[in-house]
Amino acid sequence: MHSASLFERNDAAIFGRVIYQMMEGTCRPAAAGSPPKWVQDWMLPFAKAISATKKYVVSCTLKSVDWNAELVQGDLKQAVRKLKQMPGKGILTGGVTLPLSRARMGLIDEYEFIFHPRIAGRGPTLFAGLPNLLDLTLVGHHQFNGGAVALRYEPKG
Q1: How far is CA 56 from the centre of its chain?
Q2: Exposure check for the chain: N or C terminus, fewer CB within 10 A?
Q3: CA–CA distance, 142 with 33 (Å, rounded to integer)
Q4: Widest CA span in the chain
């Protein structure tokens, strides 16, 4: 499963509060053998992969986290730079607002966008408000059976 392999290719993940709580509420019980009723079998490898991954949670409102997680508070740029200096394969980021913040700071080494064959016409706009153009180079792609396509890019320069 592609999404599980993302966590296996990285040593850690950094999430904002919303994504962390959403994943914890679903994936934690699924990986422990008590998935919510709506979770399908094909989702279990993802739940196990994210549960095993070290997580860093950026939040001003949470007082503590667990589930193999550590709270990140204070200067985000400094914290991400420190995490990136640690040995390992990489740090995965998900969500909308945290990737935008990291992109503004120039602290994303690789982007992966998954395009689904459905146009929603609503919802948050990814990278809305990015102050400068960001030129990317395609470094990989994967087409899924259902028609979705994952495209991986690195920033130029």
Answers
A1: 11
A2: C
A3: 30
A4: 47
What is residue 49's predicted lDDT score, i.e. its pLDDT? 92
Residues 6 or more apart whose Cβ sits within 8 Å of residue 64 = 71
Q: Phi/psi zone of residue 26: left (φ > 0), alpha (ψ -120 to 50 degrees), beta?
A: alpha
Q: Concatenate the DSSP letters of all residues of 71-119 into one string.
A: EE-S-HHHHHHHHHHSSSS-EEE-SSHHHHHHHHTT--S-EEEEE-S--
Beta bridge partners of 91: 12
**Angle between the 17-31 and 44-52 helix axes, to the nearest 10 degrees?**
110
Q: And the tokens for 139?
A: 């470094």
Q: Is the CB of residue 15 less than 8 Å from the CB of residue 23?
A: yes
Tell me the three state secondary structure of residue 45.
Answer: helix
Tokens of 23: 């994943």
Read off the pLDDT of residues 53-81 as tens digits, 9 standing for 90 and up. 999 999 999 999 999 999 998 899 999 99
